[in-house]
């Protein structure tokens, strides 16, 4: 009997070792969790269902703001004048008055930390001239990102006919923001701050408290955005990082505020407990050189264009394998970013991704003097 029980125990351990992660159920109509570097979906529950997003809309607003900053179309120290339209937004706000001036920096803090509708619209108007024009940009950007279940009607997330998105689309735009503008985490993780109102009546401080309670409750929280309205109920796009893995957890339509945070934490815990990410070389990593025919420089460094990563269940010790393919040579002139090969990644025998290898620097075409000097060197050698 002891021998029989021992065999059963061994079998149970073996079966358990190969078992997929336990199923997950979320107390909300729609939810998605995604690994940030790869964009892979870890968990999905009605992820493509179209629902009102409330202020999680501001993830797209934030993305366009940070893109405008990165492109130097606006700067952090630019001064924004509040319009009548922006001042009467209602909902969550910092109570801007018509004609009140604030810097882009302070308005972004108000949007990211306090989810201020008036600040969102003021920035939208500053970037595009009108909220309507900014909303056009929001929808075009959503289309570029492949957000097929999204239609925006305003920049702040107030309930409106035809204003909707999905948990999966929220994860997509949250990833785009966090991946390409990592500095947003610096503001998104502030718990309390303030701005100064400057009006005709004088100056006064206004306190900002983060609507995302996970920045205090959850280990490794990096952001990102809450939202709630009568139609949307309680929504959240949460992000957190542990080790070299960062996850996004989206909850839509929760019955109350506590539930959205609880269910987001459940998805984050599930992802960190059951999965790991294996990554290739970072974008910009130099992996070799390529000869340059008739160039001022005889060769140019070759670098990786994009990071490739793969999400796998914990328990496997396999790592990414790579095959580097570099052209025999490239002819001058060479521009920065010229494709000169590719790197192919495989995981456990299967191709999981590939990215271009590109020239790290520009190389001009050699002049007559360069070629003559080169011939003399060859002759004397």
Count the DSSP helices.
11
Unreliable spans: 1-21
Total separate domains = 2
CATH homologous superfamily designation of the largest domain: DD-peptidase/beta-lactamase superfamily
Portion of residues within helices: 25-40%
The major beta sheet can be summarized as:
6 strands, mixed
CATH topology call of the largest domain = Beta-lactamase
Q: What's the helix-strand series?
A: HEEHEHEHHHHHEEHEEEHEEEEEEEEH
Q: Under the CATH scheme, which architecture of the largest domain would be assigned?
A: 3-Layer(aba) Sandwich
What is the CATH first-level class name of the largest domain?
Answer: Alpha Beta
> What class do helices, strands and sheet pairing give?
alpha+beta
Mean pLDDT: 91
Distance between the termini: 85 Å
- The total of beta strands comes to 17
| Proportion of residues in β-strands | 25-35%
Shape: globular
Descriptive account of the structure:
With 381 residues, the protein is α+β, with helices and mostly antiparallel strands. It has two domains: 30-275, DD-peptidase/beta-lactamase superfamily (Beta-lactamase, 3-Layer(aba) Sandwich), CATH 3.40.710.10; 286-380, Peptidoglycan synthesis regulatory factor (PBP3), Domain 2. Helix content is 33%, strand content 30%. It is built from eleven helices and 17 strands. The chain has a six-stranded mixed β-sheet with strand order 14-16-17-12-11-15, with no helix packed on it. Strand 1 and strand 2 form a beta hairpin. The longest helix is centred in the last third of the chain and has 18 residues, at 257-274.
């Amino acid at each position: 009997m002891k021998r029989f029980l021992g065999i059963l125990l061994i079998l149970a351990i073996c079966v358990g070792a190969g078992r997929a992660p336990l199923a997950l159920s979320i107390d909300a109509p729609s939810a998605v969790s995604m690994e940030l570097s790869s964009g892979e979906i870890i968990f999905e529950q009605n992820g493509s269902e179209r629902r009102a997003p409330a202020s999680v809309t501001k993830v797209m607003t934030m993305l366009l703001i940070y893109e405008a900053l990165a492109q130097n179309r606006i700067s952090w120290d630019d001064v924004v004048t509040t319009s009548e339209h922006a001042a009467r937004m209602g909902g969550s706000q910092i109570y801007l008055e018509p004609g009140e001036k604030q810097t882009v920096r302070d308005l972004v803090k108000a949007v990211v930390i306090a989810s201020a509708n008036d600040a969102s619209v003021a920035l939208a108007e500053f970037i595009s001239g009108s909220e309507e024009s900014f909303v056009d940009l929001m929808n075009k950007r959503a289309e570029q990102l492949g957000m097929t279940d999204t239609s925006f009607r305003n920049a702040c997330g107030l309930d409106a006919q035809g204003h909707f998105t999905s948990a999966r689309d929220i994860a997509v735009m949250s990833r785009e923001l966090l991946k390409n503008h990592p500095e947003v985490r610096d503001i998104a993780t502030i718990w309390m701050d303030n701005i100064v109102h400057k009006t005709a009546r004088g100056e006064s401080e206004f306190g900002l408290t983060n609507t995302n309670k996970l920045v205090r409750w959850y280990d490794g929280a990096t952001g990102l955005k809450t939202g709630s309205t009568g139609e949307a109920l309680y929504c959240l796009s949460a992000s957190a990082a542990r080790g070299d893995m960062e996850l996004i957890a989206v909850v839509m339509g929760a019955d109350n505020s506590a539930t959205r945070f609880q269910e987001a934490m459940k998805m984050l815990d599930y992802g960190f407990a059951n999965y790991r990410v294996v990554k290739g070389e970072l974008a910009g990593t130099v992996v070799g050189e390529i000869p340059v025919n008739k160039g001022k420089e005889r060769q140019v460094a070759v670098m990786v264009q994009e990071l490739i990563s793969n999400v796998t269940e914990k328990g496997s010790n396999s790592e990414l394998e790579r095959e580097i393919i570099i052209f025999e040579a490239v002819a001058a002139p060479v521009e920065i970013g010229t494709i000169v090969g590719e790197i192919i990644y495989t995981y456990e025998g299967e191709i999981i991704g590939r990215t271009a290898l590109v020239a790290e620097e520009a190389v001009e075409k050699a002049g007559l003097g360069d070629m003559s000097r080169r011939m003399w060197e060859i002759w004397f050698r």
